[in-house]
Structure formats: C-alpha cells, structure tokens
Amino acid sequence: MTTKKDILYEVDRNQKRKSNIYNTDKETTEDTTVNGGSPMETFQQQALEIREPGPNFDPSVAPKDGDEYLMHMLYERKNCPAVMVREPNKCKKNRTAAALAENFKDEDEPLKSIAYNGILPTKEWKDYQIKDFEATREKIVLLRLELHRQRYDQTLEPPLIADPIAWHQFCHDNPPYLKTILRFSQRTLEQLLEFICDWLRVGEEKVVLENISSEDDIMPSTSSAGCNENMKPAILDLTDANAWLGTWLYGALTCLHIPIEPEVHSTLRDIARVCIRLRGRLPATASGKAVPYNLFILLIAKAFGQMDFAEFV
Question: How many domains does the chain have?
C-alpha cells in the first residue's frame, strides 16, 4: 500500500530530475556560445567582405563600384594619423580690424575715461528737456485713448517687418509724423530701436575707419579719442546730414508703451553707450553737434530709469 510519504518522495525526486536536465541543457548552450558555437557565429558574421588594398592599389583612382569604395575607405582609415596638429598662421596683424576690436571690445567697460571737451548741458536745460519729453508722452497717451474711442484703425503698418535696408530707406525718406508712428505696434517700435542702434554703430564704425585712413601713427583707443582736438568731427552728424536718424529715435522713445521689457532696456543702454563714444570723438570746436547726443543720454538716464548714465550729462 502506497503511503502519503512515498508519494511526496516520488514527486520530489521527479522535480530534481527535471532540474538537472534543465541545468545540463543550459550549460551545453553556454558552452557552445563561448566556444564558437552557432549562436555567436550567427550574430557576428561579417556582413560585407572588404578586400585589403593590394600592391597595385592606386588611391588616386576613383572607385568604380561598392567594393572599391570600401577598399578606399579602409586604405584612408589605415593611413589617417591618430593626432593631427595644425600650425598657427603667423600673419601680419590687421590694423583696421585691431582698431575696430579695440573700439568695441567691451560694451560693459566704464565710459568715464572718455573725455569730452565740449560744454556739458546746464541743469536748466536738462530739466526743460525732461519736462518737455514727459509732456509729449502724455499728449501721445491721450491721443491714443481718443483714437481708440473713435475706433481708429491702428492695425495698418508699413510693410517693413524685418528688412533693415527697407526700414533705413523708409525712415530716411519719411519724417516720423504721428499719423505714421502711431500705427506702429510696441513690437515694431522695439524693432525700430534695434535698427537705430545698429545704424548708430555703423556710423561709429565709419568714424573709426575714417580716423585710421587719415592717420599715419597708431590708432588711438576709445579712451583717448576725445582728447585729440585735431581729430576729424564725427561723420554721423545728428544736427545736419543725419538729423532724420535723431528725429526717428526721439519719436520712437516718445511712443514706447511703458513699462518696457528688459531686452528694450538693453537696447536703450547700447544706444546711450554709442552716443557717449560718438560725443567723445567730437573736437572742442564742434560742441554744438553734441546736443543730440546729450539729449538721448539724458532721456535714457532719467526718463527710462538708467540712472548710471546720468553722470555723463
């Protein structure tokens, strides 16, 4: 008679036998894989046979088929050095490029070293200019409210969205009348200020190049540019030939919606820096041409809260 103990013993023996068979098969598979059996051979077989370049191989001859192309690749790989070193070019320093780099090397560098031999504006002049600017802005705000009540179409803008050349031509040929500039959105005004900043920079660059071409000695740095009374006046003249640029800058400043974004503050600060440098290049005999520069430095400092520029006016 078979007891319960005998049945459990038989079941346990069968389980051990199956386990031994499984382990034996597993070891056989692993041994086959390690010792070069079919599994490793199947997955590591070479897909394409690449022939080694023979003694008659000419690397200058273009490959005619895929086999020759692979042979060329193998040849180039074997002949390519592991490390390549390129000698620096010992070229002569370009004086013009060096002067421009000196002039624009650090926009954040303090501008106190730039001398200005002209007469700085009086307190009465500065107070009047700030008061007049704020009054103009208040009139523009009231005019915008009135146009909004009358449902005036302010969606129309000049077709000059992102073309600086077209913008330059447009501003040069058209005064900043309110009927035109009030149609500009805030983004368009911000973009116009960026263009004006670029145009001022171009004018400053022309000043540097003009001074280089008219001198035989070393190009003076920005810090000493205002100390040379014999230096030619700035080519960028906001009181005469380039007066249109100054009027558009003033108009864009009066029409800006307050508050403005940090990026716009950065653009205004760049404009102030350029004005300070251009003013510093004026000789003492041309102090009258510094009035527009003084005005824009003052407005950016006082009307737009960039008070660190107030010491320059």
Answer: 1
